[in-house]
Amino acid sequence: MSKLNVIDKFIFFINSVLATLLLLSYILPFFQPKHFTLLSVLSLTVPVLIIINVLFVLYWLLKLKLQMLLSFLVLVFGYFYMGTLFKIGGSTVAENANTISIMSYNVRLFNIYDWIPNTDVGKDISNFVKSEQPDILSLQEYHPNNKSIDFSFYKYSYIQLAGEKKQFGQAIFSQYPIVNKGSIKFPNTPNNAIFADVVKNNDTIRVYNIHLQSLRINTQVEALKKEDSARLLKSIGQSFAMQQDQTELFLEHKKTCKYKMIITGDLNNTAYSYVYRMIRGNLDDTFKEAGTGFGKTFNFKFFPVRIDFIFADGANFTINSFKTFNDEVHSDHYPIMTTLSLH
């Protein structure tokens, strides 16, 4: 530090604070949000903390200063401990008789309330799904009253509407027979989780579709400027606590499943959160195994946010490919799709 000028000393102080915050964020998945409400909010900032620390490494590297080691070591530790924010490469394996493809998509009610200046959102999404032809389709925020939607090209389906007026909910569509299905009700919210047991060849596969509590954040810049910070943090903390309750209900149901398992859905939280760690369990994150890029699934302006996931049991599936469709036109979420091979 003695060789640093005053400005660089100040920069290194800021660097130290942000590197410490990033290091702290690595243990957040082990803290229950109900007991560490405000601390858990830090999990949302992990992507930006990673990016900032990368910039610090580059800054000190250009200046040929050993201070680069602080952020570098924190980033290396996070890479091996929690995985990477950015994936290079990915993989693709040719389809065969044992291959199954799954798409997950939060369709934001098919724009039923005209958030987007496009009257054909339902039709466009239907045509998009038909063109990609996933064997199984999980939809969050499904709304049946948009007359332009058409998923009749699927042979089987399970739709569970929630809330007092039963206006919207989750849906699973399948090209394979559904032999069992059900819903996990979350209290005091229209969010819920559903499941369908589908049969491919001689295998029964449990497919879950989860939609955890929304954080209710208006991502528009002007709206965020008007938000009271303390109130916003309190609201997010309360949503995280509800997510924990919902996750615990889901995990109790998950324990009863004896089939090969795939979990899809919108967790409304990142891969650095408690709910992600608990729901994923010993399953594989298909993006981490076969994805590429940032894997951004939510249209947030400031930094890449991945809150939509597909998990698969690595003991029973080989993850062949993963794709995030960069579609900002039809929803505030991007569709994601993976192909798996059954063992």
From TrEMBL:
- One BP annotation, GO: DNA repair
Q: Which co-factor is required? A: Mn(2+); Mg(2+)
Pfam families, alphabetized: Exo_endo_phos (PF03372)
Keywords associated with the record? DNA damage, DNA repair, Endonuclease, Exonuclease, Hydrolase, Magnesium, Membrane, Metal-binding, Nuclease, Transmembrane, Transmembrane helix
- Give me the segments passing through the membrane: 12-31, 37-62, 69-89
Which GO MF term does the entry hold, naming one? Answer: exonuclease activity
* Endonuclease/exonuclease/phosphatase domain: residues covered: 103-333
State the protein's name: Endonuclease/exonuclease/phosphatase family protein
Q: Which organism is it from?
A: Formosa sediminum
